[in-house]
Amino acid sequence: MRFGACGTCGTRGTCASQDRLDDLRVDEHRPRGGERRPVGLLELGAKLVRKRLRELRFDNDTVKRVARLVELHLRFFGYSDQQWTDSAVRRYVRDAGEELERLHILTRADVTTRNRRKAERLEHAYDDIERRIGELAEEEELAAVRPELDGERIMAVLGVPPGPLVGRAYRFLLELRLDEGPIGEEVAEARLREWWSGESGSRAS
Question: How far is 39 from 77, CA to CA, in rounded Å?
């Protein structure tokens, strides 16, 4: 699999630096012997990738994108065991961002089992997650998931000035949007007021 133009020389195809990049992306998270690392150690794999790519003098943008792919690409294997909720699919898309298509390619390429049945099961599972992403994207404009209320509206509803509180409220609404999908402005306002009531009570105590 090719990531695109080489971050070192700008060429495509059989560039030696590009081949090293391909190897790093797929193998950095594996300990010697081929056994997978637990998902909780993927952050370490991403850190090692950043270090290795900087040594190879890749540009900062490539370093950032490849490290992010290393962090994310094993998340799918939980889907193959049990289907995700719509909320989990939204988060997968949100976290991948512009790298979603490359994440699809990398995840499929990293199915290295020699067990044909297992390989087919994983392939069908990823076909399914791509289908669900497509359906949710069509229904919800998934690539641009935002809360129903923006910062200005949050300040108006809560009667508060600009500040950290508005950011916390926005993050609450974003999590709500990811968990439950589109709920409409009226419901979002009601849920925001409930959240604010709880926040006010916590500070008072």
Answer: 10
Question: Does the residue 40 lie in any domain?
Answer: yes
| Residue bearing tokens 């003098």 | 57
Domain-terminating residue out of 46, 74, 102: 74
- Residue 186 included in any domain: yes
Number of domains in the chain: 3
d(CA 117, CA 123): 10
pLDDT digits (tens, 9 = 90+) for 78-105: 776 777 888 888 888 888 888 888 888 8
Find out whether 125 and 80 touch, Cβ atoms under 8 Å: yes
> What are the C-alpha distances in Å from 102 to residues 27, 43, 60, 66, 167?
16, 19, 18, 10, 31
More reliable by pLDDT, 95 or 44: 95
Q: Is residue 8 a contact partner of residue 58, using CB atoms and an 8 Å limit? A: yes
- Return the structure tokens found at 121: 């099961």
Q: Out of 98, 126, 145, pick the residue that ends a domain.
A: 145
State the residue for tokens 């690392």: 37
Q: What is the pTM of this model?
A: 0.55
152-170 pLDDT per residue, tens: 889 999 998 988 889 889 8
- Give 203's pLDDT tier (boundaries 50, 70, 90): low
| Tokens encoding 120 | 């087919």
- Across the range 60-73, mean pLDDT stands at 88
Please tell me whether residue 35 adopts helix, strand or coil conformation.
coil
Which range of residues forms the domain containing residue 178?
Answer: 146-200
